[in-house]
């Protein structure tokens, strides 16, 4: 994947969402610089610019070395906080006021969440600690997720309660639905 494709890999997923497009293009450039040591040193001023613009002005904390798959959809993009150890899969959706981070323990901090592919995260969601969110999961608004989630589930409530989705059992149907989005 060349530089241009890398930077604009989320462009179509955020069609009509100027703020989401801008934040993710700035993130991908910073992520490109952070992943390659020579660019990290050459792009130090850009990384500083990214941190000031995205974190201070857009109120979105996506550290430049976070691992995020392609086609991330970012709705509203404010008050979004995640640690740099979070891993997010392909074709995921994030909404405002969401926290994805690790948990403080007596011996330090836990590992950060790992989020699978095709995960839709509602607003005001907290995903905390060493949890794994499997593929094709919907997390409802205001949910607090502190346990791992199975595939094809909906999570709602505080603490998050898993409910199986009966209408998503056919994987071919899911793939056709997601292809129409992309």
UniProtKB/TrEMBL annotation:
Keywords: Acyltransferase, Membrane, Repeat, Transferase, Transmembrane, Transmembrane helix
Any one GO cellular component localisation term in the record: cytoplasm
Protein's UniProt name: Serine acetyltransferase
GO biological process, one term: cysteine biosynthetic process from serine
Top-level enzyme category: transferase
Taxonomy, superkingdom: Bacteria
Enzymatic reactions: L-serine + acetyl-CoA = O-acetyl-L-serine + CoA
Residue intervals passing through the bilayer: 38-58
């Amino acid at each position: 994947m060349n530089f241009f494709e890398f930077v604009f890999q989320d462009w179509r997923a955020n069609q009509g969402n100027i703020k989401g497009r801008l934040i993710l293009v700035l993130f991908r450039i910073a992520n490109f610089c952070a992943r390659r040591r020579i660019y990290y040193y050459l792009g130090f001023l850009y990384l500083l610019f990214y941190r000031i613009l995205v974190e201070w002005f857009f109120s979105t904390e996506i550290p430049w070395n976070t691992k995020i798959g392609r086609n991330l959809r970012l709705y509203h993009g404010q008050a979004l906080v995640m640690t740099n150890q979070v891993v997010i899969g392909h074709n995921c959706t994030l909404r405002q006021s969401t926290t994805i981070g690790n948990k403080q323990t007596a011996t330090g901090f836990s590992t950060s969440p790992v989020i699978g592919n095709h995960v839709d995260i509602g607003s005001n969601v907290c995903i905390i600690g060493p949890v794994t969110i499997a593929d094709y999961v919907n997390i409802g608004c205001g949910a607090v997720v502190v346990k791992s989630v199975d595939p094809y589930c909906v999570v709602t409530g505080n603490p998050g309660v898993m409910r199986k989705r009966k209408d998503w059992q056919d994987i071919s149907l899911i793939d056709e639905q997601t292809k129409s989005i992309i």
